[in-house]
Amino acid sequence: SYSGLEPVKASSRSFDVVIVGAGVIGLTIARQFLTGSDLSVAVVDKAVPCSGATGAGQGYIWMVNKNPASETWELTKRSHQLWKMLAETIRDQGMDPLQGLGWKKTGSLLVGRTPEDSVMLRKRVSQLSEAGVRAEYLSTDELHSKEPAIYVGTDGGAAFAPDDCQLDAHQAVSYIEKVNRSFAPEGRYAEFYHEPVTGLVRSTSSGEFEAVQTSNNTLYGKAIVVAAGCWSRSLMHDLFKGSHIQLDALVMPRKVRMALFTPCGCCYRIIGW
Fold this sequence. Notes:
The protein is of the alpha/beta class. It contains 8 helices and 13 strands. The chain has 2 domains: 14-57 and 169-239, FAD/NAD(P)-binding domain (3-Layer(bba) Sandwich), CATH 3.50.50; 60-167 and 254-272, no CATH class. The protein has helices at 24-36, 53-56, 73-92, 97-101, 115-130, 140-146, 169-181, 232-239, and strands spanning 14-20, 41-44, 60-61, 108-112, 136-138, 157-161, 165-166, 189-192, 197-202, 209-214, 218-226, 259-261, 269-272. Required for the assembly of the mitochondrial membrane respiratory chain NADH dehydrogenase (Complex I). Involved in mid-late stages of complex I assembly.
């Protein structure tokens, strides 16, 4: 889980990149800048890592419920690939992704109970397969063979995506944070937790945004990244309040309900409908 250690401080208040949001997205963006460039990075958050959606989420990295025709398909597919690459990197370094990320490649199931559901599931499997995602349709008997605890009746079935994965968000954040903190001794990384962002600071000469104002500090950055999750929309509206900028960030909270089964006590598999 989140280490709970004191945030990494820095004497400087000027960085190449300032990232607002210390969830899994904000921290992985920081990691990418730190490992892939010579840029310095500051991460600022109103609380601590895993205090928002990251901590509440279940770490599902799956494609079975995605529609290849959707506008976010390529983004979703790329995200899936990047997480798999991270797990492989950890394995190549002689570590176990299960220990580092809570990584499990158990696949996922999308199940239905009616003939109409079965038609939809067959169509989904066809769409996923055509888009390059491994998927197969399971009849009632085939589903029962894989998951004896699930009964969908004689008319039901399931779409099975064997490459879908799950990670433990708290473990993943702890690992990423450890990597980020390894760059602190050379002055390239700092954390400003429990510091809500109160505004953006404009340059008096160019008029461009040059800093993030928090409750305690003014953090200057050549680039500012807002990665505050479902709070990004309200945060951006607050930051641009009173300016001539019209912004409509299409990000908002939502609640998803899922059932989680532990058949045979050996693995977790997501069941959705």
